[in-house]
Amino acid sequence: MTTTTAVPVTAKRVGPLTALQQTMTLAWRSLVQIKHNPWELLDLSIQPIMFLLLFTYVFGGAISGSTGDYLQFALPGLLVQNALFYTLSTAIGLNTDITKGVFDRLRSLPIARTAPLSGRVVADTFKQVWAFALLVGFGMILGFRVQTSVAGLLGALALLVVVALAMSWMSVLIGLKASSPEKVQMIAFSTMMPLTFTSSALVRPDTFPGWLKTWSDLNPVTHLADAIRGLLIGGAGDVTRSALVSLIWAAGFAVVFAPLAIRAFRSRV
Amino acid sequence: MRYAIQAEGLVKRYGETLALDGVDLAVPQGRLLGVLGPNGAGKTTAVRILATLLRPDGGTASVGGFDVWRQAHQVRSMIGLTGQYAAVDEMLTGVENLLMIGRLLGMSRADARRRAAELLERFALSDAAGRAAKTYSGGMRRRLDLAASLVGRPQVLFLDEPTTGLDPRSRTELWSVVRGLMADGVTVLLTTQYLEEADQLADDIVVFDHGKVIASGTSDELKATTGAQVLEVRPLVADHMELVVRVVSEVVGAAPDLSAGKAVTPVRDPATLPAVVRRLDDLGVVATELTLRKSSLDEVFLAITGHLPQESSAADETDLARKEETFA
């Protein structure tokens, strides 16, 4: 081995193209794991699929009169729930890197400071798309039908991805601050569960008591679920309005959590 | 002389705790500095500052002439870092871990692949190259971790307790790897709790305790600082121990310690040994062991700090909690 440096010492910082290449390398790193463990992606999807089966066949008849009707209603809501849960995989991945020391190794390399973060977000966006496809596919096997169009389907996917990206700022913050990956999972569970259950994601809020109905109307998950449902199966309600409200919520989330996350990241970097 | 690593007056606080209390370090190019000290002495904090991971609260540090904070990027292109716990992605295979680093360092796919194969070969990991790192043993993970820090051919290498938690065989293997690196002219800063390790590898040693450098020099110089050599006498017949103690006490002027069938005492006068030999011979006592040796680093550490290096000092360090889970 010679002692000449492989990297020229003259480079003072990383150019945008190099930064992009590093982002893609780190995204590859997160995704190549799927090759070794294709079911890893399913781990996070198993819960929504279980919900899908339980809700459809256990409660479906009672809630909607028939399991088929309920499946049509609930699948869009489960897609939302799944996407929201999935944003926390960014937090879990980031936190695992930090606790295992991989984060420090990456930080000691002459790479763009943002690459470890952006690489993960790119990979997680890809996983979001995968999970969406998986759930819709599984739903279709059970009898779910997209009643709008391919454009509606793609629109639903795009909306979910955009909202998930905005939410991932919160995820990054949690990932940087939490003391262990298990804590992240606990935080995820105790916030996402009540949030999705008190929305229109899984049931029509018509039968909620007044106070809960008031909350449910405010709950961003309700708007997102209504928008996704409208985009997939059409029907009553103003889809454009629901989608817009969802996007405004997403923007709000990004505005609040992006600076916090960046500050936490800076103090780590 | 040009210093590859230089630090002056480094200070780092964690709340009330002063992790580093004005540390000076200087490592000439191509040398290996052993940083010796108990848990919580500030070794890891110093390494993290030098490896651009942590901002010092006071003082300056440079690696290869670049300031570790203001010119962090240049420093990063020169250094390799291996922490106390193997920082490898457990879900990736050995070769993928190294490929990732190579690609991040701007190598082409082919170059990164070649470099990965080279390093895996060198660290006897070729057979395990295609297996996920989570299936590796502790020693294999450490070797992969070290390989990862060498992908970019660093000029300066930080090894933070590279053998903590390793079995003796893996430890010896790692030592020979480090010796190989030194032969290549790499400058190394190695922290350790093991005196033997510093003794085996280091050109120079600094001793940390409570965030301060309390002693420095070559291994021999440090051993000489206690001013003493150690005389050990083991009689052939156990009953002769009393005579041995009497002789040694008379010649040295102080009663020796008795440990494991030996009379042990520090001596300063080189004439002590022949005197003891003559007196024992006169009394007809046969010694199976009669040695005058330099004091071990353990004894040096004890003499300087008042405690042995394995005993943790009171100061807290951020990495303490992590250390427990390093190896199963």
Can you tag this structure with a few keywords?
A: 269 residues; mainly alpha; globular; disordered N terminus; B: alpha/beta; Alpha-Beta Plaits; 6-stranded mixed sheet; 4-stranded antiparallel sheet; 14 strands
Question: What would you say about this model in short?
Answer:
The complex is a heterodimer of chains A (269) and B (328). With 269 residues, chain A is mostly helical.
Strand-helix topology:
The complex is a heterodimer of chains A (269) and B (328).
Chain A: H1 16-36, H2 40-64, H3 67-100, H4 102-107, H5 115-142, H6 150-177, H7 181-197, H8 210-218, H9 220-233, H10 239-268
Helix pairs in contact in A: 1-5, 2-3, 2-5, 3-5, 3-6, 3-7, 3-9, 5-6, 6-9, 6-10, 9-10
Chain B: E1 3-14, E2 17-28, E3 32-36, H1 43-50, E4 58-63, E5 66-67, H2 72-76, E6 79-82, H3 94-104, H4 109-122, H5 138-150, E7 156-160, H6 168-183, E8 187-192, H7 195-201, E9 204-209, E10 212-217, H8 219-225, E11 229-235, H9 241-252, E12 257-259, E13 262-267, H10 272-283, E14 287-294, H11 297-305, H12 320-323
Parallel strand pairs in B: 3-8, 3-9, 6-7, 7-8
Antiparallel strand pairs in B: 1-2, 1-4, 4-5, 9-10, 11-13, 11-14, 12-13
Helix pairs in contact in B: 3-4, 9-10
